């Protein structure tokens, strides 16, 4: 991507497009927390969400469209897209066309060809385009990455990762109606995180096998089991699902000299949803979770693997550094595009049942 010219070191005025779960739980508090950003406008058409914005962020303008936002605050520099999946591509294109840098929630896009056009448009405009793969900063994933990079397990052969929950009904109408072509289903949702983490750890991969199940009456899959074969020889087994009364360990990694297992869930999302500010996440996470929720070694010779608190604020800190010319973007768009390509290949080869 064409390097972005350094910007003056003043807060970048930011418009958040969407104030559903992603916008309200993740992006709004994280943007507000970062001293390099100013949450100036929130775009939502919902009167109830507009009132929630005014209560939580009284200095932010509430607008119905991106056009309205730009009229209200002409000096916006960054747009954060946190809307339903099928709208990511057109809204990102609109924001880039208005001269804004863009953060777009996962999945980056639904169709890889749209992502290619957006990457090209951002490059031509000299703007940053940064997908929000925040799970790279989960505490448990950081612990796995540290162990793998340190060679603590020897040569890794098998990586197992699961994000599962028990949600027997589909509560949001758009999620029930959205098929894979619209970005619906667990692969575009939780699977985006799982695939991104696997590629981040072990590099390029091809899908070797998948099982997709439709059990809740929606237009897309509720659960997915995916096998990836990485170019370096590692095999990844990825589980994502909404009908798991008993969940698997979050991570299991098998190497030639040992293995590791981590149970439980990174608490950052729950803490943000409960209103804990980003600056309080680390201390709250330490108090809320058992730090030694992992083990490492071999049967009969294991030791505790301490999982530290995650670091979601690091995403926007990295973004601000990139805007100021002080580093690369925290998540390159090309890497998120690789995730979308794999999801499309899996859906094409294994349509599910």
Task: Furnish the topology, listing elements before pairings.
Elements: E1 12-17, H1 21-33, E2 37-43, H2 47-56, E3 61-63, H3 66-72, E4 78-81, H4 88-97, E5 101-105, H5 112-125, E6 129-132, H6 139-149, E7 156-164, H7 173-177, H8 190-202, E8 205-213, E9 223-230, E10 235-241, E11 251-255, E12 259-262, H9 268-273, H10 281-288, E13 294-298, E14 301-305, H11 313-323, H12 333-349
Parallel strand pairs: 1-2, 1-4, 2-3, 4-5, 5-6, 7-10
Antiparallel strand pairs: 7-11, 8-9, 9-10, 11-12, 12-13, 13-14
Helix pairs in contact: 4-5, 5-12, 8-12
Domain Gfo/Idh/MocA-like oxidoreductase N-terminal: 13-130
Domain GFO/IDH/MocA-like oxidoreductase: 141-261
Pfam families: GFO_IDH_MocA, GFO_IDH_MocA_C3
The biggest sheet, with number of strands, parallel, antiparallel or mixed sense and barrel status, is:
8 strands, mixed
**In angstroms, what separates the terminal alpha carbons?**
40 Å
**Overall CATH architecture of the largest domain:** 2-Layer Sandwich
The strand line-up of the biggest sheet is 8-9-10-7-11-12-13-14
How many structural domains can be distinguished in the coordinates?
A: 2
CATH class of the largest domain reads: Alpha Beta
Strand content: 15-25%
Q: Spans of 5+ residues with little confidence (pLDDT < 50)?
A: none
CATH topology description of the largest domain: Dihydrodipicolinate Reductase, domain 2
The tally of beta strands, per DSSP, is 14
**With helices defined by DSSP (H or I, 4 residues minimum), what is the helix count?**
12
- Average pLDDT rating: 93
At the fourth CATH level, what is the homologous superfamily of the largest domain?
A: Dihydrodipicolinate Reductase, domain 2
The helical percent reads 25-40%
The shape, in one word, is globular
Judged by helices, strands and strand pairing, the structural class is alpha/beta
* Order of SSEs: EHEHEHEHEHEHEHHEEEEEHHEEHH
CA-atom Rg in angstroms: 20 Å
């Amino acid at each position: 991507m064409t390097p972005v010219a350094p910007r003056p070191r003043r807060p970048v005025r930011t418009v958040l497009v969407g104030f559903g779960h992603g916008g309200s739980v993740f992006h709004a508090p994280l943007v507000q927390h970062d001293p390099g950003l100013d949450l100036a406008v929130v775009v939502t058409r919902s009167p109830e969400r507009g009132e929630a914005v005014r209560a939580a962020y009284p200095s932010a303008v509430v607008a119905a469209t991106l056009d309205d936002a730009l009229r209200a605050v002409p000096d916006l520099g960054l747009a954060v897209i946190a809307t339903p999946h099928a709208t990511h591509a057109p809204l990102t294109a609109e924001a880039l066309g208005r001269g804004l840098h863009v953060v777009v929630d996962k999945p980056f896009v639904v169709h890889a060809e749209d992502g290619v056009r957006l990457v090209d448009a951002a490059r031509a405009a000299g703007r940053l385009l940064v997908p929000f793969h925040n799970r790279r900063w989960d505490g448990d994933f950081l612990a796995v990455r540290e162990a793998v990079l340190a060679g603590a397990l020897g040569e890794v052969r098998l990586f197992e990762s699961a994000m599962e929950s028990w949600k027997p009904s589909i509560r949001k109408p758009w999620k029930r109606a959205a098929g894979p072509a619209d970005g619906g289903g667990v692969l575009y949702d939780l699977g985006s995180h799982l695939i991104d983490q696997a590629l981040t750890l072990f590099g390029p991969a091809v899908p070797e096998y998948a099982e997709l199940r439709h059990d809740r009456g929606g237009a897309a899959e509720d659960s997915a089991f995916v096998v990836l074969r990485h170019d370096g020889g590692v095999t990844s087994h990825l589980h994502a699902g909404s009908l798991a009364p008993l969940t698997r360990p979050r991570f299991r990694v098998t190497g030639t000299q040992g293995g590791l297992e981590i149970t439980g869930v990174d608490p950052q999302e729950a803490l943000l949803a409960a209103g804990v500010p980003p600056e309080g996440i680390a201390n709250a996470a330490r108090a809320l979770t058992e730090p030694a929720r992992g083990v490492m070694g071999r049967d009969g010779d294991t030791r505790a693997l301490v999982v530290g608190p995650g670091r979601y604020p690091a995403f926007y800190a990295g973004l601000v550094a990139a805007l100021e010319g002080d580093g690369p973007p925290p998540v390159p768009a090309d890497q998120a595009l690789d995730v979308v390509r794999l999801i499309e290949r899996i859906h094409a080869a294994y349509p599910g049942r």
